[in-house]
Design goal:
With 599 residues, the protein is α+β, with helices and mostly antiparallel strands. The chain has six helices and 34 strands. The strands form nine sheets. Strands 2, 29, 30, 31, 32 and 33 form a six-stranded antiparallel β-sheet that branches. A five-stranded antiparallel β-sheet has the order 1-5-4-3-34, with no helix packed on it. A hairpin with a 4-residue loop joins strand 31 and strand 32. Helix 1 packs antiparallel against helix 5. The relative contact order is 0.11.
Length: 599
């Protein structure tokens, strides 16, 4: 009886102590919760009422209703949602197969077929040997921007053309269901954008973004099975590597289609036999990728290897640039840091049969400029240009050869190859650039250019390819069977004029350039009021001469306010086929062609 009394008393004492502890800690917890809630409300109110209005007052040219990249009278504007295939399976549909990205195949097919169109040519005929899928990526903001906007900020949207050789095609668009877009849909708040990083307002935007992250406003981003962060990647870094728009380019390797933006992990989609796209989520090569992936990986046509780099501009304790090689079977090789010395914007690079070619160009990240009301990125000619050349499978910085030259910038390379002791690089060269794209109004926007790097003597030479009177060119493409080897021909979008409404150069056609002489040997012109972009080369099946193939692209018709899918003979540069699409395809960036045998 005494033991029972003492036992009951002990239980009561323990319960009393637990209640005392709970009552002691409850007020601070409630205070912290209330404080966090009030702080978040204050941050959102400041953002909505003050920062948004102030940003439009100080930068009226970037208002969503006025700025040249989102003007409703041009094809930069977003495509209406009724034309876009879009699902967030991890929000709107039950999860299946252990991943929010891997929805049931029937759901995917229902989504894609809902807004897909089977179309016949308006003029000409679709070549019977053009079998496969054309996929082009570009920005298409799902939600109207609430603050300063840049063309590069839109959500990734894939415009797809599927062909089986029966004289018709299947056309559809697919908004990429990134974790960033999912978080914005859940919270009703938009992530920080490139367009906001201007001057002191940009600093405030960064502060608000940091506060929201600290207060847990944005949810944890979904991760596909087996594709979590590498063991050496911190949780905060992994979060940042999953917050991109996947809106720049696409590459197909080892049966996987990757949608890419250079600030993030690649976003994987599977392309089914009938062209339907199945989103899989961010891909980290089974938790071995530790950094970003460029939007322009290179797939060696002989070895099947995919070579890429990733860069970052904020953490001085980590390498600015790291490079990797992915084997034909999809195995990721080790990181290699070549020793880039600046936080430079490195958009593209090149490969040869044995070497990797990187460009350290003077468009650099200097956040302290924002305190002076300027953009964070600046072109600094005094830094000059540096080029790094090293073996593809290099293991030591001692294997890197550096070459210095005059300042310039390159968004896109055409090709590189080895010529005896020399490594030859061909690319579209700017003498000056800035990210508000005002350089696009320059009468000499960019020209094809060639650099020669002598690996024996350490000397470099360079020259323009062709006449200086040739109109501006960009988005160079070649027959990718010659990637990394000497190619004879290059195809570039031509920009001879500036549009009066948008104040941006418009691509009126595609030029064929003989890289041996640098001269223009052919031209396809879209016609009055028609604007194109990058043209992707598709070799004929079976392949024969280097230029035996087709150029495929989308062309916007300003008068009809819609777009066409256009096929051009790459040898004669004559238009083979035009297919009028049921709606316009907004201006975008880069595409690829996946042969039917690979689907």
């Amino acid at each position: 009886s005494t033991q029972s009394t003492w036992g009951n008393s002990g239980e009561m004492l323990r319960e009393s102590l637990l209640w005392c502890l709970w009552l002691c800690f409850l007020p601070p917890v409630l205070v912290c919760k209330v404080w966090a809630w009030l702080t978040l409300k204050a941050v959102n109110l400041f953002d909505d009422i003050i920062l948004t209005r102030l940003s439009f007052y100080l930068h009226p040219e970037r208002h969503p209703d006025k700025n040249m990249f989102l003007h409703t009278a041009t094809n930069f504007g977003p495509l209406p949602s009724e034309f876009v295939n879009f699902q967030l399976p991890y929000i709107t549909a039950p999860q299946s197969r252990d991943s929010p990205y891997l929805q049931a195949e029937a759901d995917v097919r229902a989504d894609e077929t809902l807004k897909a169109y089977t179309l016949a040519p308006t003029s000409g005929h679709l070549p019977h040997d053009l079998r496969g899928q054309f996929v082009r990526n570009g920005p298409n903001p799902r939600n109207t921007p609430t603050k300063l906007y840049h063309w590069f900020d839109g959500d990734g949207m894939l415009a797809c053309v599927h062909m089986v050789g029966d004289g018709q095609l299947r056309f559809f668009t697919k908004l990429i269901p990134t974790p960033r877009l999912a978080a914005e849909e859940q919270t009703g708040r938009q992530f920080m954008k490139l367009g906001e990083l201007t001057g002191r307002l940009g600093l405030i935007s960064i502060l608000l973004w940091t506060l929201r992250r600290f207060l847990g406003f944005f949810p944890l981003l979904p991760v596909s099975p087996g594709q979590g962060p590498a063991p050496t990647v911190a949780a905060t870094t992994d979060f940042e590597l999953r917050t991109g728009t996947a809106n720049t380019a696409v590459v197909f390797h080892n049966k996987r289609l990757f949608a890419l933006v250079e600030s993030n992990y690649p976003f994987e989609l599977r392309v089914l036999a009938d062209g339907v796209l199945q989103p899989r989520g961010h891909y980290t090569f089974s938790r071995t990728l530790t950094h970003t992936m460029t939007a322009h990986p290179k797939v060696d046509p002989v070895t099947g290897e995919m070579v890429f780099f990733g860069y970052q501009i904020r953490d001085k304790s980590r390498p600015w640039v790291q490079c990797n090689v992915v084997a034909r079977d999809g195995t990721l090789g080790p990181d290699f840091a070549p020793g880039v010395s600046l936080p430079t914007m490195m958009h593209d690079f090149a490969i040869t049969e044995h070497y990797t070619v990187l460009m350290e160009l003077p468009l650099v990240f200097e956040p302290e400029r924002m305190f002076r009301g300027l953009d964070a990125f600046t072109f600094s000619p005094s830094l000059g240009s540096r080029f790094a050349i090293f073996p593809r499978h290099a293991t030591s910085p001692d294997q890197v050869r550096w070459f210095a030259g005059p300042p310039c910038y390159v968004f896109h390379t055409a090709n590189a190859y080895e010529d005896g002791d020399e490594v030859v690089l061909q690319a579209c060269r700017y003498s000056f650039i800035n990210l508000d794209l005002s350089s696009f109004m320059d009468s000499n926007m960019s020209q094809l250019h060639e650099w020669r790097f002598n690996m024996s003597t350490g000397k470099m030479s360079e020259r323009p390819l062709g006449s200086e009177n040739r109109p501006n060119v960009e988005f160079p493409t070649i027959n990718n069977n010659y990637l990394g080897r000497r190619a004879r021909y290059c195809y570039c979008a031509e920009f001879p004029q500036v549009d009066a409404a948008s104040m941006i150069a418009r691509s009126t056609g595609v030029v064929k350039v003989d890289l041996a002489s640098g001269e223009t040997v052919g031209r396809a012109v879209w016609g009055a009021g028609r604007v194109g972009g990058e043209a992707v080369f598709v070799p004929r099946d079976p392949p024969s001469a280097e230029d035996a193939g087709y150029l495929i692209t989308f062309v916007f018709d300003d008068a009809a306010q819609t777009s066409d899918f256009v096929v051009v003979d790459a040898q004669s540069m004559a238009t083979v086929c035009t297919v009028r699409l049921p709606h316009r395809v907004p201006f975008g960036f880069h595409g690829t062609f996946i042969p039917g045998s690979e689907l």
